[in-house]
């Protein structure tokens, strides 16, 4: 039975016309298929791009250039070269997703990179380390027939990989995913892909369903995702690299993470399994070999711990959130990921601010100030005056607390300077409510400062 289903999926003639839409209903998702790292056939990228270009909402093209593909073995520790090259190609082509191809004996391995890789742009759950394996013969020059079922799965994967934060793109992405998931649900069996490919297929089916159902308030929708990903784990003896196993646990973590945010029923019960699966993923996505995946899992773990802290007021969860974000900070540096680094620094400032306040720690409060100042290296007064002023206000609040709690005149004076900086920007912007708030902050700081100076004189 499995062999018959395998034959159906990989060897049946293509019927891509069934996936077509004569007139596009939304923005086209531009997809680039990079020239494969393949010494046998030179047509794989062209054949795949041609097949995907027939799908509704997809504008696919092949990128045929002579460049160093050595990073595509994914084991060479130069993952940044892969990310950097991919981002450059995406920018050049104004594309949403790039598909990398790499021949592994009689298989072709595909990996998917989007323009907002490792950023919370548009709710893409695909990791760059997720690998989609298919028989090389399906894309070779002399036998380029892709079955409708296989093309449908690839189509769903590509749409799931789109990470554009634009509301317009998000609406159209969800529309396409609904149609794709409906078609996938009509397949006889996910095992039709063959035993050797089964864990990868179940993994991507899980990602596609998660991309559609992540905001669902119903247990039943996410249960489908869990069943698919747990089915992938049942075939882990067929997984070629531990990295791929880590990706499955990573997606299970994402699924439970979504449940903590969107399920109306027992959402709090999903924090522990989310954390557990993310931590398991970290064991396979080594911080030294796959630092960016490891660091991003740290970032997501930090978010989970923050949510758990807000619900339970468990200060240890806040400490864990800080630790995980510190780990992410080590990976996403200012030089390589300036915008994301700035975002991390802002979140770190917020967490340290709260931790310092709760523990009455002057040292932690000063660390929070340093983190906020780091964020201002990216969010500058010239480019983002109001955002810069908001951060300056936060720094002022910290200095105010230090001045009040530790009778520190210098801190109180620094608070005044920060509040006045923020007030100047807000006055220029005409933000009346913000102006009132800042004037209140300035007045109370003056009162503290006067009290501190009088105390200092009396002593």
For the secondary structure, the number of strands is: 5
- In which range does the helix fraction lie? 55-70%
Helix/sheet category? alpha/beta
**Residue share in β-strands:** 5-15%
- Low-confidence parts lasting 5 or more residues at pLDDT below 50? 1-17
Order of helical and strand elements:
HEHEHEEEHHHHHHHHHHHHH
End-to-end CA span: 91 Å
What is the overall number of helices? Answer: 16
Specify Rg, calculated over alpha carbons: 26 Å
How much is the average pLDDT? 87
Looking across the biggest beta sheet, what order are the strands in?
A: 2-1-3-4-5
| Biggest sheet overview | 5 strands, mixed
Overall morphology: elongated
Care to give the gist of this entry?
This protein is α/β, with parallel strands linked by helices and 459 residues long.
Notable characteristics:
single chain; 459 residues; alpha/beta; 5-stranded mixed β-sheet; 5 strands; 61% helix; elongated; disordered N terminus
Mind explaining what this structure looks like?
The chain is of the alpha/beta class and about 450 residues long. The protein is about 60% helix and about 5% strand. It contains 16 helices and five strands. The protein has helices at about 1-10, 45-55, 80-95, 150-160, 165-185, 200-215, 220-235, 240-260, 270-285, 290-310, 315-330, 340-360, 360-375, 385-405, 410-430, 430-459, and strands spanning about 30-35, 60-65, 95-105, 105-115, 130-135. It has a five-stranded mixed beta sheet, sandwiched between helices. A hairpin with a 2-residue loop joins strand 3 (about 95-105) and strand 4 (about 105-115). Helix 9 runs antiparallel to helix 10. The longest helix is centred in the last third of the chain and has 27 residues, at about 430-459.
């Amino acid at each position: 039975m499995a062999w018959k289903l395998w034959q159906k999926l990989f060897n049946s003639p293509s019927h891509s016309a069934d996936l077509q839409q004569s007139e596009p209903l939304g923005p086209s998702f531009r997809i680039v298929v990079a020239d494969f790292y393949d010494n046998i056939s030179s047509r794989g990228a062209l054949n795949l791009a041609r097949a995907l270009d027939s799908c509704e909402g997809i504008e696919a093209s092949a990128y045929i250039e002579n460049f160093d593909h050595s990073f595509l073995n994914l084991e060479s520790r130069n993952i940044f070269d892969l990310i950097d090259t991919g981002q450059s190609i995406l920018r050049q082509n104004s594309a949403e997703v790039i598909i990398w191809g790499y021949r592994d004996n009689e298989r072709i391995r595909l990996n998917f990179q989007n323009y907002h890789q490792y950023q919370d742009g548009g709710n893409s759950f695909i990791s760059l380390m997720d690998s989609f394996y298919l028989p090389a013969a399906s894309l070779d020059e002399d036998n380029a027939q892709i079955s409708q079922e296989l093309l449908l799965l690839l189509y769903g994967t590509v749409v799931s990989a789109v990470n554009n934060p634009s509301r317009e793109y998000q609406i159209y992405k969800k529309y396409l995913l609904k149609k794709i998931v409906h078609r996938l649900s009509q397949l006889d069996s996910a095992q039709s892909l063959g035993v050797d490919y089964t864990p990868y297929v179940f993994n991507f089916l899980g990602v596609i369903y998660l991309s559609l159902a992540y905001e669902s308030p119903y247990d039943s929708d996410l249960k489908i995702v869990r069943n698919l990903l747990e089915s992938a784990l049942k075939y882990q003896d067929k997984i070629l690299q531990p990295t791929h196993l880590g990706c499955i646990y990573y997606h299970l973590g994402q699924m439970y993470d979504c449940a903590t945010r969107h399920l109306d029923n027992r959402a709090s019960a999903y924090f522990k399994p989310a954390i557990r699966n993310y931590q398991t993923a970290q064991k396979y996505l080594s911080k030294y070999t796959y630092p960016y995946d490891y660091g991003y899992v740290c970032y997501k773990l930090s978010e989970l711990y923050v949510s758990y802290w807000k619900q339970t007021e468990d200060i240890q969860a806040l400490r864990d959130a800080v630790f995980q974000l510190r780990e992410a900070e080590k990976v996403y540096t200012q030089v390589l990921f300036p915008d994301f680094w700035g975002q991390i620094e802002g979140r770190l400032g917020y967490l340290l601010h709260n931790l310092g306040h709760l523990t009455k720690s002057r040292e932690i409060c000063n660390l929070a100030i340093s983190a906020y100042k780091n964020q201002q290296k990216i969010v500058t007064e010239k480019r983002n005056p109001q955002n810069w002023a908001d951060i300056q206000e936060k720094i002022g609040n910290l200095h105010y607390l230090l001045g009040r709690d530790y009778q520190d005149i210098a801190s109180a004076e620094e608070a005044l300077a920060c509040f006045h900086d923020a007030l100047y920007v807000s006055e220029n912007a005409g933000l009346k409510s913000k102006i009132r708030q800042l004037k209140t902050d300035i007045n109370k700081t003056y009162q503290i400062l006067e009290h501190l100076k009088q105390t200092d004189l009396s002593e």
